[in-house]
Amino acid sequence: MNDPVFLRAARGESVERVPVWFMRQAGRSLPEYRALRGTGSILEAIADPALACEITMQPVRRYGVDAAILFSDIVVPYHAIGFGVDVVPGRGPVIAQPFASAADLDRLTDLTESQIKHVTDTVDLVVAELADTNTPLIGFAGAPFTVASYLVEGAPTREFAVIKTLMHRDPVLFDHLLDRLVAITITFLRAQVAHGARAIQLFDSWAGSLTRDEYQRFALPATQRVLEGIADLNVPTILFGVGTGELLPLMATAPSTVLGIDWHVDLDEGRRRAAKPVQGNLDPARCLGGVDLGVAAAREILARAGRESGYIFNLGHGVLPATDPAVLEAIVRVVHDEGMAGVR
Fold first, then answer.
1. What phi, psi does 149 have (nearest 5°)?
2. Annotated catalytic residue: which of 11, 28, 299, 304?
3. Taking Cα atoms as reference points, which of 86, 77, 79, 69 lies closest to residue 27?
4. pLDDT digit string, tens, across residues 60-116
């Protein structure tokens, strides 16, 4: 059987159609997802492999996307090692005792596969479900800087004042923190691939809060080490950040196969800056105005994608909760029917 179009596009090869999937595609927009999840904790849902498998599969069945993304969260490995993480509905990850000193390094113990058995069991179930479709599963993790921003700030933030103060006041401690996060991230990703994930996405969601110099000094080296630590697995890797248009040339130096591009930079310009296969980059808000407006927006992205190979259609960030699933269904159809990037 031929490799799936998603994997071929990620490698820059020709395809019979432009592949598409959606970040946060299990999302909060699917009524079947909301019915299944109820009001329980996301960490409790992730801890139930049968439930997490079903949530992973729902958008694959609904939309006919070209890849599944594992239902999980970037804080899962840190919850598993007992760092004191919770995910508060409507707020996000909250840390009971944020990282503040060298003594906290001891709390970042090595991750073992047995501690994330619920994740690998979910991967096993999803891979079995996908076997007859030849649809690949994407595993993922948070990039070290983004994870550090949660562990140090203690909760989501718009200022990033605490972590930036730590970076600049005590760069040696910050480096030690990222050393621990690199090791945990590599273990987490390798376990997912060992159980059948066929691609990896590394979410550096908050890299856009950094200047170019800060990114090059405080984020990029750790990201490079994570990607180098899984390079022998020979699966495509996607590096993605939000608000990173000015960082794209630096991000492109990391050894990812694909560079994810958010909606703050035009896709054709993003492709030029990346100089490697790219993924993106429809503004999620453009999906809120109904099918006709969503399809028109998707066509704008396809036009900027051009005809060169090495392109995966996606949103520029996650699906918004108010998105009508019919809009995403229509976008998948138009991408498959009209996308020309890499199509031979």
1. -60, -35
2. 28
3. 69
4. 999 999 999 999 999 999 999 999 999 988 788 999 999 999 999 999 999 999 999
Tell me which of 26-30, 177-181, 288-292 is least confident. Answer: 26-30
Matching residue, tokens 């035009």: 266
pLDDT band at 130 (very low <50, low <70, confident <90, very high): very high
Could you tell me the strand order of the sheet in which 258-261 lies? 68-69, 137-142, 199-204, 237-241, 258-261, 278-282, 311-315
Q: Say how many residues make up the chain.
A: 344
Residue 1 pLDDT greater than 60, yes or no? no
Strand partners, 86: 94
Per the model's pLDDT, the better-predicted residue between 27 and 215 turns out to be: 215
- Beta strand 92-95 pairing with 85-88: antiparallel
For residues 11 and 311, the answer to whether their CB atoms sit within 8 Å is: no
Annotated active-site residue 28? The verdict is yes
Cα distance between residue 247 and residue 210, in whole Å? 9
Q: Is 266 one of the annotated active-site residues of the chain?
A: no
Q: Would residue 24 show up in a list of annotated catalytic residues for this protein?
A: yes
Q: Is 212 a catalytic residue?
A: no
Catalytic site residue from 8, 17, 66, 73: 73
The catalytic residue among 8, 17, 33, 37 is: 37
pTM (whole model) above 0.90: yes
Domains within the chain, CATH numbers bracketed: 21-284 (3.20.20.210)
